Amino acid sequence: ADVVYLEEFHAALLGTAGRSIKQGGLFVMIASKRNGSLDKFITLARNSFPRTIVSDDYDADVSKAIRRSAKCFPIMLRMLVPKAEKLPESVLKMCEESKHRLLERKKEEERITRRENMRREQFQELNGKMAALRGVRLEAG
Question: What is this structure's pTM?
Answer without folding.
Answer: 0.56
